[in-house]
């Protein structure tokens, strides 16, 4: 059975039940309780859920009133031996409750745009407290929506992180854990899910990893890989091509658009007008090129603090240039009134290291300079200016999108959770109980995935599989992860160690892909992923 709802085809589960909170002024009468536990009520709830709506009590109440009126008219209640005096009271009470307590049905977006900015650190954005004006357009966007203060990736590099972002499961389930593995064909992408539900879908990316070879074209009516040299200073063309697609589509069709921009990634180069905003006078060897960063990582060069500061200046100049592209894109959405009916999500796949723990770039550690990412959502029905402190993950994006569209996500389908409960009135304590994981680092050894991590609220365990060493950090007191407190918290060490051990027991890696072509190898070498 498939029931359409605003263009979204829904597969109902077999066991729906009402999970909303009842109004505080519902009488404790056994007759009322009898109705709430009866078949009629649950048929009404089933109707809402099949329509893709998670019902609040007042929505069910309104439906109950209509059903009671119909039953009274047809005298079916007498046959069911319900006392009419009680039913009249229920009817009046229901009208009063619905009139006095009902809220308007929240607006839902019709379309979805997912923007992934590769290698973007949240702590270098104004919305996350950075003092320099690196991101005015992104900051304004965040003020209009929901910002997650503590969002983390599942892996410190592009391929497995985006696999989780677009499937809602950890790398060990979607299978793309090395550059020889594609997404498993039995794990659906968000584009596939929405395409089957009637959405027009398109993806525009300039990453060598987000291509057909690795399965990222699946579910897209149009998939465009934009080849751009890492040495280029000009802004990426992905947003221009995305706007062109939006202009050419049929306006009566809901759509899902994925835009991925790689321009913040090394080489750290941008137009002079942006570099002049942040670059201080500098004389030294650091130039921000990927080749030099790889050389630094291998121990071929040492950098001073001034050198590192210069790298950061080049990096944040690239953020500002990217922000100018976001400004144009957001303006396009507003002029064409797409912002009024579209859920827009802005996120990154991972961060970037600047020698905080002796490393540069990303891919090989589990520290937060590489794992923490920005996550902001804006759209109809979402509150403006909301900041959420609970820890979120890339695996949460798919179930959250489907929930906002009206789907009732089944928890067994994804590793992630519906984040929308954190900005509604519903309690979110369950988020304080879960443990989040990261894996699939990009070490250049025969056996990858040397480091893994597990996080429970502010406590984070990093495990080195090669040495069997475990380190624990209290991020509330030590956000820079400099002090190992494993000796102070034996119970937390046991909890996270056991969780990480259970997490590591199974992995569903996909079949090995053919060897990379010479052209692909050269491009990945230029990006620092192959040495």
Structure report:
This protein has 531 residues and is of the alpha/beta class. The protein has 17 helices and 17 strands. Strands 3, 4, 5, 6, 7, 8, 11, 12 and 13 form a nine-stranded mixed beta sheet that branches. A hairpin with a 5-residue loop joins strand 9 and strand 10. Helix 3 packs antiparallel against helix 5. The longest helix is centred in the middle third of the chain and has 31 residues. It is globular.
Helix-strand blueprint:
Layout: E1 3-5, E2 8-10, H1 30-36, H2 39-50, H3 57-74, H4 76-79, H5 84-101, E3 111-117, H6 136-143, E4 146-152, H7 158-167, H8 171-174, H9 190-196, E5 200-205, E6 222-225, H10 238-248, E7 255-261, H11 272-278, H12 290-297, H13 305-335, E8 342-347, E9 353-354, E10 360-361, H14 368-371, E11 372-373, E12 375-378, E13 386-393, H15 397-405, E14 436-438, E15 451-456, E16 459-464, E17 469-474, H16 490-503, H17 518-526
Parallel strand pairs: 3-7, 3-8, 4-13, 5-6, 5-7
Antiparallel strand pairs: 1-2, 4-11, 4-12, 8-12, 9-10, 14-15, 15-16, 16-17
Helix pairs in contact: 3-5, 6-13, 11-13
Helix content: 25-40%
Gyration radius, in Å:
26 Å
Percent of sequence in beta strands:
15-25%
The average pLDDT value, as a whole number, equals 81
List keywords for this structure.
alpha/beta, globular, 531 residues, single chain, 4-stranded antiparallel β-sheet, 17 helices, 9-stranded mixed β-sheet
């Amino acid at each position: 059975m498939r029931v359409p709802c605003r263009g979204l085809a829904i597969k109902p589960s077999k066991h729906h039940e009402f999970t909303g909170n009842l109004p505080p002024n519902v009488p404790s009468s056994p007759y009322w309780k009898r109705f709430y536990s009866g078949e009629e009520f649950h048929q009404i709830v089933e109707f809402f859920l099949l329509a893709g709506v998670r019902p609040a009590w007042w929505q069910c109440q309104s439906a109950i009133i209509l059903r009671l009126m119909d039953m009274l008219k047809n005298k079916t209640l007498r046959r069911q031996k319900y006392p009419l005096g009680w039913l009249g009271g229920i009817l009046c009470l229901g009208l009063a409750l619905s009139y006095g307590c009902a809220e308007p049905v929240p607006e839902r977006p019709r379309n979805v745009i997912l923007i992934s900015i590769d290698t973007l650190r949240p702590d270098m954005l104004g919305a996350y407290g950075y003092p320099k004006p690196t991101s005015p357009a992104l900051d304004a966007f965040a003020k209009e929506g929901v910002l997650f203060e503590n969002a983390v990736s599942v892996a410190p590099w592009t391929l497995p992180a985006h696999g989780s972002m677009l499937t809602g499961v950890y790398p060990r389930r979607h299978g793309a854990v090395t550059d020889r593995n594609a997404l498993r064909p039995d794990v659906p992408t968000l584009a596939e899910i929405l395409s089957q539900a009637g959405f027009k879908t398109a993806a525009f990316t300039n990453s060598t990893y987000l291509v057909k070879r690795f399965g990222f074209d699946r579910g897209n009516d149009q998939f465009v890989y934009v080849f751009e040299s890492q040495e280029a200073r000009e802004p990426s063309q992905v947003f221009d091509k995305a706007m062109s697609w939006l202009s050419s589509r049929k306006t009566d069709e809901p759509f899902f658009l994925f835009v991925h921009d790689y321009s913040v990634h090394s080489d750290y180069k941008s137009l002079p007008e942006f570099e002049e905003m942040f670059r201080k006078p500098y004389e030294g060897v650091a130039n921000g090129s990927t080749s030099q960063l790889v050389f630094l990582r291998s121990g071929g060069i040492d950098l001073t603090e001034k050198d590192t500061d210069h790298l950061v200046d080049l990096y944040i100049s690239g953020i500002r240039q990217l922000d100018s592209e976001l400004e144009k894109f957001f303006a396009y959405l507003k002029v064409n009134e797409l912002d009024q009916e579209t859920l827009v999500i802005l996120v990154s796949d991972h961060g970037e290291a600047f020698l905080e723990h002796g490393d540069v770039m990303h891919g090989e550690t589990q520290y937060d300079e590489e794992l923490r990412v920005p996550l902001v959502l804006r759209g109809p029905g979402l509150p403006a200016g909301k900041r959420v402190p609970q820890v979120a993950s890339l695996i949460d994006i798919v179930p959250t999108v489907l929930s906002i569209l009206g789907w009732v996500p089944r928890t067994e389908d994804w590793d992630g959770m519906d984040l929308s409960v954190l900005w509604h009135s519903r309690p979110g304590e369950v988020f304080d109980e879960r443990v989040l994981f990261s894996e699939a680092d990009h070490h250049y050894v025969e056996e990858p995935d040397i480091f893994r991590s597990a996080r429970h609220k502010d406590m984070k365990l990093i495990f080195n599989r090669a040495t069997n060493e475990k380190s624990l950090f209290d991020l509330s007191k030590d956000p820079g992860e400099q002090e190992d407190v494993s000796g102070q918290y034996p119970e937390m060490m046991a909890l996270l160690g056991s969780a990480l051990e259970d997490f590591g027991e199974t992995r569903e890696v996909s079949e090995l892909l053919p060897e990379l072509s010479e052209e692909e190898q050269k491009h990945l070498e230029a990006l620092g992923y192959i040495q």
